[in-house]
Amino acid sequence: MGIVDTRAQYRHLFDIYVPIALAVFALIVLAVLLAVLVYRRRPPERAARWHENDRLEGAYALLLCAVVAFLLYLTFSTEHKVDTVSAGERPQLVVNVTGAKWEWHFNYPGYGIDLYSGAVGHQDLVVPTGEAIRFRLTSVDVIHAFWIPQLRYKHDLIPGSTQNVTLTFSRPGLFAGECAEFCGLLHSDMVFNARAVSPAAFASWAQSERSASGAVP
Amino acid sequence: MRGGAIPVLAWAGILTVLLAVNAVWTGDEIQIAEYGFAVLVIVLAGVLLIARHRAAIRRGPPEPRPARVEAVPDLSFAAVLAAIAVASILFGLAWAYFLVYFGAGLLLLSLGRLAVEEQAARASRERAEKRPAAEEPDAERGT
Amino acid sequence: MSVTAPAVSTASRASGLFGAAASTDHKRIGLNMGLASLLFFLGGGVMALLMRTQLAQPHMRFVSDETYNELFTMHGSTMIYLFVTPMALALAVYLVPLQIGAASISAPRVVLGAFWVWLSGGIIMQLGWLTEEGAGRSGWFSYVPLANSANTPGVGQDLWTVGVILAAVGLTLIGGCVLATIARRRAPGMSMMRMPVFTWTELVSVLMVVGSFPVLILAMSLLYAERLGAHVFTGYSGAIDYQDLFWFFGHPVVYVMFFPFLGAAAEVIAVNARKRWFGYAAFVASMLAFAALSMSVWSHHMYTTGGVTNQYFAFTSTALAVPAGIEYFDMVGTLIGGSIVLRTSMLFALGFFLQFLIGGLSGIFVASPVLDYHAEDSYIVVAHFHYTLFAGSVFGFFAGVYHWFPKLSGARLREGLGRLHFVLLVIGTNLTFLPMFFLGNDGMVRRIAEYPQHPGWGTLNLLETAGAGVIALAIAVFLLNVVVSLRSRDPAGEDPWLGHTLEWATSSPPPRHNFERALPPVTSYAPLLDLRERAEREDSRTAHVTAGGSGSAGRGAPDAGPEERTS
Questions:
Q1: Is C226 at the interface with chain B, CB within 8 A?
Q2: A23 CB-near residues (< 8 Å, 6+ apart)
Q3: Confidence class of residue B65 from pLDDT cuts 50, 70 and 90?
Q4: H-run or E-run covering C104
């Protein structure tokens, strides 16, 4: 049980995938270099005539299948957490995220707060730490993607659909966010900051924000 | 053995298995449709090769075979004209409409040119077949 | 069985420019296509240099955002539609008929016309630069709704769409002709399981071409209709359908841009290890599986859309490691026990395998949806596919150039300049693309015209820009090498490297109908090596007789087994 931390899940897979990849890389580079050093400038008539070994290759293929199965098991179990388990959370806070060329619109339906960030606005998306937050992603024009690199997670905003993602900020601080899917002229300006604060600080921020904007009625 | 169709059909077989797994796993209509299209094209290619079956390629040294002369054109302006015609029709759609008419005219021209080339091919094939085989230096070499 | 009668000409033999442009000789068409692709490569390279200049430092204003978007769109489109894919097929058009001992390609007129259709498409695509709104600027995969006429107005994007359609039509037709050639024109004795390794890689590539490129033609035609105002791709399902159609072409093409260069590198390694390619049967089986799997991975480009079944595509994409692993096993198996000559072509072939490895291993990384949720559309992906396409395919291409240049020109390329070219290209490639992994993991998005001040980003990007300069220098050395080698020729003769396959059993360059002497018997996938080994065996037998027939030196039987293996 517990909240799914996308950053930790990424780290978990990364720490297995990357060492395996580096080991395979080192092994093959070493094998090639050794082979070249040993068999370089051998007299041509000493070149071997053998050219197949089906058993060895079959065994090697089985080994590869085992590695693939292992990686897939890891990936599937992690993806289950990131996609399915997190979707089952019942978060307190819901934020509507709307992409438009080239601006982010964050709407807090429970609080009546609207924030804008991107090529024009520069308001921070403010979120509480330590709890699951549901982001409802949609776009009004073209495809954008909501990416917070430090959370190691992104998802597309596609016009005509609203998709939910559930993310958790485990520590307070400023998290850079950006549009990851190319969306036209000012794509590189479609950025935002997410400011994660303690739940108490979030509550007081929301209170002051609401009174500032909701004073009219 | 079947005019080169075996690996084509074998590959279509592997694709079909992957298609079936995709269909069961995803149930996504457009994916099944495009996948099915690819399998169909490959199977069709294989069937075509079998249908235009010719003598099997045997292992072993080359054997003399009865010569049937194939005329190969050295140049084909028909092909170049047709290509430029098609390109200018599409270019015309995007750029300036008169190019569509220009392309259509060019296409007609290339068809005419093709007829001339085919005529010449037939004539030279007949000429070549009349010649005794000894004059045909490559008659035993398969292609 | 039909026999080509080379003496029969149906058109007047025109020489000069018209003769070169309208020739139906597969070697002429292959050369023309290769040269045109190479020009597009240089153009695409200039675009890359402009982009790298812009990205050298944070907030540089070397070109406008608009121009930058055109540059990356046209760089990607040029490299994929107009350089690597057509070059892969140009190699097939030139070499496959020679390797299988055919006098010509199937349907040469169709090949000729298809080349011109493809070339017209390329030129039309580039004409966008001259229009008011500029060239295509919504990426080489031009997703809808971004690529519709409301979001990307202008003739430039129309010309891009039409150009892609024409290029795809040309490439599909050529693929079909190569397939027919391999199926029907093999020399007597050359069964499928005696086909050279390179021809096998081209066979599986053209199977993918005919199976998947028509879907691109469809997708682009629908996109064109959409731009004219038809509502083809509407709403969420429209966006997903377009991506499904596009990537059904867009991933197989990645392997069409890889397999032929893998085949070229394999031939180079076998010839320069003076040993036939190891594990031929397993190689053939794994190529068939490799190609089928790579037709089945396309939606791993769509993990973050929420519209596809990620697990299926994670399964197929990760499973690619099995056939890829077998190719590497075979490569090492070929080296072991050989007698290795480190010519420039061999350096490039080894470079191809080792550098592609970085692209391949990072490919398994991004095949995992969870890892891809971070890596997608970041510089991790940019690094990944440049390691496959540039550090991979382009190195394989240069291996092929150094190997086959004597065949197509009659002269060898200079070894000294070749080594310099190789060393510079290795340095430039890794300097340019390795830092991208770190930048991407740190959060740098692809396709941004400028990036913010961020610790380390300025330095890493500056390194990359310097690397791009080194790559440009390496390409200049290559061009110089070609010019020098053609000016003062070092005649190569028929078979300068002791080749294994039939293209080395004819003059360099080959005559109009390829072979003027009778072909050697095709006894395996390395017929010329068979001949040499048989001759050697005869020699040693006579030697034994004269020496009194002591059994001590009884080496050299063709299937003598691993009697003298690794030390």
A1: no
A2: none
A3: low
A4: none
Work out the minimum CA distance from C472 to partner chain B, whole angstroms: 33
Give contacts of B11 with chain C, Cβ < 8 Å: 204, 207, 288, 291-292
The nearest CA of chain C is from the CA of B79 a distance in Å of 5
Residue C561 confidence class, pLDDT cut points 50, 70, 90: very low
Work out the end-to-end distance of chain B between its first and last CA atoms, rounded to an integer number of angstroms. 15
Other beta carbons within 10 angstroms of residue B86's beta carbon come to 22
CB A97 within 8 A of CB A137: yes
**Residue B74, CA distances (Å) to B70, B79, C11, C16 in order:** 12, 12, 6, 13
How confident is the model at residue A206, as a pLDDT? 95
Using pLDDT thresholds of 50, 70 and 90, give the confidence band for residue C11. very low
Query: What is the spatial distance between Cα B86 and Cα C125, in angstroms, rounded to a whole number?
Result: 15
Question: Helix C310-319 to helix B5-26 angle, to the nearest 10 degrees?
Answer: 150
Listed in order, strand segments (DSSP E) in A15-172 are 93-100, 103-108, 113-118, 125-128, 132-139, 144-148, 153-157, 163-168
Mean pLDDT of A68-89: 95
β-pairing, A163-168 vs B69-70, is unpaired
Specify which residues A156 forms β-bridges with: A145
Reading phi first (left if > 0) and then psi (alpha if -120 to 50, else beta), residue A191 is in beta
Q: Per-residue pLDDT averaged across C308-333, rounded?
A: 97
Model confidence at C545, pLDDT cuts 50, 70, 90, reads low
Chain-centroid distance of CA C93 in Å reads 13
Report pLDDT digits (tens) over C155-192.
999 999 999 999 999 999 999 999 999 998 999 999 99
Verify whether the Cβ–Cβ distance C275 to A47 is below 8 Å.
yes
Q: How far apart are CA C405 and CA C423, in angstroms?
A: 20
> How many whole angstroms separate alpha carbon A162 and alpha carbon A135?
10
